[in-house]
Design brief:
- With 180 residues, this protein is α+β, with helices and mostly antiparallel strands.
- It is built from 4 helices and 7 strands.
- The chain has a 7-stranded antiparallel sheet with strand order 2-1-7-6-5-4-3.
- A hairpin with a 3-residue loop joins β5 and β6.
- α2 runs antiparallel to α4.
- The radius of gyration is 17 Å and the shape is flat.
- It starts with a helix and ends with a strand.
Length: 180
């Protein structure tokens, strides 16, 4: 499914290397994997415990899809979001915070256009190689320690056209108590 591919690109892009930004601590004009991890380490980690996941397909624009197919895709994503089981975040996973995500995502064909972070979250903009040309990805995440939310937006050109595809998703986790 096209949505899955686009979201995978957005996710993989989080830990990519690229051009300068606030995370470029050594001033060499690139954001290395170590600098991505250092930026991720600034973000307040989630506490261990049981979390309810939620997902929302905020926007889907694809000139190759009919309005009916777009409505079905949104319906499918909403159904998946409502069916997501609670997840137990272990002490080990919680201690890694956003670094754990960065470690998992070291592959990708992306350049980091900008990356900033503080205790409350991370903001990133990247350019990734995609089937139709360069995709522009933005990620905005927030963390309170007991809840997190990430909004990812991907804009990708349609091969052989001036049109673009656009997907925006919100993914969140809210602590509901101790693991059972």
């Amino acid at each position: 499914m096209r949505i899955t591919l686009t979201l995978a690109i957005a996710t993989i892009a989080l830990a990519a290397c690229g051009s300068s930004s606030d995370a470029d601590t050594d001033g060499d004009g690139t954001v290395s994997a170590d600098e991505v991890e250092a930026a991720a380490a600034k973000v307040k980690p989630l506490e261990p415990g049981e979390y309810k996941m939620n997902m929302e397909l905020v926007e889907l624009v694809d000139p190759s899809m009919s309005s009916e197919d777009i409505a079905k895709a949104k319906e499918f994503m909403n159904a998946m979001a409502n069916a997501a089981p609670a997840r137990c975040l272990s002490e080990e996973e919680a201690s890694k915070g956003m670094i754990g995500i960065a470690e998992q995502l070291q592959n990708g064909d992306c350049t980091m256009d900008s990356l900033t972070s503080d205790a409350d979250g991370m903001q990133a903009a990247m350019t990734c190689k995609a089937g139709g040309g360069d995709a522009k990805i933005t990620i905005d995440s927030q963390s309170t320690g007991t809840a997190s939310e990430m909004t990812m937006t991907a804009v990708e050109p349609v091969a052989g056209s001036e049109d673009t595809k656009r997907v925006a998703m919100k993914v969140g986790m809210t602590r509901t108590g101790d693991c059972t």
